[in-house]
Amino acid sequence: MRIRQFLPVCVAAVGLLVGCAEAGEEPNGPVDRSAASAERPSGPPGDGSRAWEPDDAMRRAERALEAVSDSDARPELVHAASASVASGMDQEHKAPGDRPYLLGITCDTNGIEELTLTLSRGDQEQAYGIGCGDPEADQFNIPAGEPFTARVAPVENGTGLILWRLDTIARDAVEGCDDDIDGCDS
Q: d(Cα 81, Cα 96) in Å, to the nearest integer?
């Protein structure tokens, strides 16, 4: 009697297992996905050697920001975000306190080699080229004080992303120009 009650459950389970196994098969035979991704060329973005993928682009951009992080600077995260190049970036940041700020920014795009970042505070304004797909993010020093704005103009029909991180850093960790908004003579 117990076998008869268990038999329909057993048949249903076997049917599910067989159905799931068949659903996982590739129509043209098995495919080794790890080998397919390993064979994909990995040249710089936009050179035609690989397809641009958002997830891959985000990972490359995160690595570029990590490549320039310096634990000796004792960074404290203020803000981090991303945007598509088609929408651009227009961020106003307050800059209170007495620690200088460090803006790290990078882009990864499909066919766009450089974007223009404009930093402004009051009447002061500086424009900088940001290399897209670079292995290291660009960094800009901004002293504490009045709010400042960081802008990247939208690229019509552009495919790609902009990733940035704003930290405060130790005063003795400032390298190069101490105010990239005002600019420094080289």
A: 20
